[in-house]
Design brief:
13 helices, 6 strands, 4-stranded antiparallel β-sheet, alpha+beta, single chain, Bacterial polysaccharide co-polymerase-like, two-stranded antiparallel ribbon
């Protein structure tokens, strides 16, 4: 269908189009008349979640922080605070509506809170911490009051949600601190009693002294064992000499003895003198006899000294063995003392760790108590009102001019569709193009209207057109 055909159809069905436009206008007028005007007031609050918390020092908000704040604003707790702050339950109109709606079977505070929430709209601002609180009511002044009341109640609730848990947590930590102090006192008492019983101190240095003594005794034992081993070898050598019948005077211990060497030298001199005197005076001379007796005495003394030296060698072995035994006992005793000392120090270390653990637990609890106590005494929240609500100048719904315009547009749209529907149901020839489209034959001529007589169905047309040339056979 061409534009000319469409215009002819709309003109032919103009009453249907006009009727639908009038119907749309009437509907708009009915809406403007029947529906009560509703006013929407809005206030804005800003959530300063990017600033550093003065107590915890945290700067980054948790995920979904703004969504949580929006849910808090729309919560039943905030609505109850608004109801009680504005004393809406004392309003006789509210009481009457409550009785009509619930017949007094519910709580009027909860009912009014739910009613306020149903007319509340909270919208966050994109990429910022500003939240818009909107309330819709038939009274513009009441809408502004409720919007501001919700913002203030939200700020108070936000502060309570931070302060009340911190106060409860601080109270719990205060009780825990008392128990932790008792644990620390008990641990310190056990440590002090153990130190008094065992004679230890926190800076006990006996372990170093006892370790040094153990090292000294071990060194002495090693030396004594060396001496005993040397004495054993000398005794074995002496026994070997005696077993072979050799002269023990040739032993290294005897050869190195200065007293024996002196005695042997004196005996040699006496023997030499005896030979010289015997050759001069004779064997029976009294001097010779005295010299022989003296030599015999020297020989006997030498033998006695050799026996004494041999006995001394064997006695040195016994002394060395006894020294080794004594030192071994001393080393074993010192090791036992070291073990007892180490065990005592280990036990004391356990008690010291218990004291340190109790002290750390008490310090941590005290630090957390201080933080929670400071937060419980906070009087400022990280939320503040940015702008207060003002009574709106015009209603949000219904908007009379807009509704009339929408009624005209909707009526016109429906009228055009109705005209086209009627034309489809009752198709008529309204233009030369319709003849060709409907009948499939060319238009020969058109008659234009020449008289002023009213037409009955169609306008007379008088317009001559040239006949189409006949086609070649």
């Amino acid at each position: 269908m061409t534009l000319n055909q469409l215009l002819r159809v709309l003109w032919a069905r103009k009453w249907a189009v006009a009727g639908m436009v009038i119907f749309g206008i009437l509907v708009a007028i009915a809406v403007n008349t029947l529906f009560s005007p509703k006013f929407r007031a809005e206030t804005t609050v800003v959530v300063d979640y990017k600033s550093m918390d003065p107590v915890t020092g945290s700067m980054s908000p948790p995920p979904g922080y703004l969504a949580t704040q929006i849910d808090i604003i729309q919560s039943h707790r905030v609505a109850l605070k608004v109801v009680r702050k504005l004393k809406l339950t004392d309003n006789p109109v509210a009481k009457q509506e409550f009785m009509e709606a619930t017949a007094g079977k519910a709580n009027i505070d909860d009912w009014l809170a739910d009613l306020l929430i149903s007319k509340l709209d909270v919208m966050p601002t994109r990429d910022s911490g500003v939240i818009t609180v909107r309330y819709t009511s038939q009274d513009p002044q009441f809408a502004a009051i409720i919007a501001d009341a919700f913002a203030k109640a939200y700020i108070e609730t936000n502060l309570e949600l931070r302060v009340d848990p911190a106060r409860d947590t601080a109270s719990w930590f205060n009780e825990q601190i008392k128990a932790l102090r008792d644990n620390l006192s008990n641990a310190q008492a056990k440590l002090s009693a153990y130190q008094r019983e065992k004679g230890f101190s926190a800076t006990d240095e006996r372990g170093d002294v006892e370790s040094q003594r153990l090292l000294e005794l071990s060194g002495q034992l090693a030396n004594a064992q060396g001496v005993a081993s040397d004495a054993l070898s000398r005794v074995k050598q002496l026994d070997d000499f005696l077993a072979r019948g050799a002269n023990p005077a040739n032993l290294p211990d005897l050869l190195g003895n200065p007293l024996l060497q002196n005695m042997k030298a004196g005996l040699s001199q006496s023997e030499s003198r005896l030979e010289m005197i015997s050759s001069q005076l004779g064997a029976n001379h009294p001097d010779v006899q005295r010299l022989r007796a003296d030599i015999a005495a020297q020989r006997q003394k030498l033998k006695d000294e050799i026996v004494n030296v041999s006995a001394g060698v064997k006695n040195s072995l016994k002394v060395a063995d006894r020294r080794v035994v004594e030192l071994r006992q001393a080393v074993a005793l010192q090791k036992n003392r070291m073990l007892e000392l180490n065990k005592g120090r280990d036990d004391m270390s356990v008690l010291l760790r218990d004291v340190e653990s109790a002290q750390r637990a008490l310090d941590a609890a005290s630090s957390r108590f201080t933080m929670e106590n400071l937060q419980s005494r906070s009087s400022t929240a990280n939320v503040m009102m940015l702008s207060a609500a003002v009574p709106p100048l015009g209603p949000r719904f219904p908007k009379k001019r807009l509704n009339l315009l929408l009624g005209v547009l909707a009526g016109g749209f429906l009228g055009v569709n109705l005209a086209l529907l009627l034309e489809v149901l009752d198709r008529r020839v309204r233009a030369p193009e319709d003849v060709k489209d409907l009948l499939g034959i060319p238009v020969v001529c058109m008659l234009e209207r020449t008289s002023t007589l009213p037409r009955i169905r169609h306008k007379p047309w008088v317009r001559r057109r040239a006949l189409p040339e006949p086609r070649a056979a």
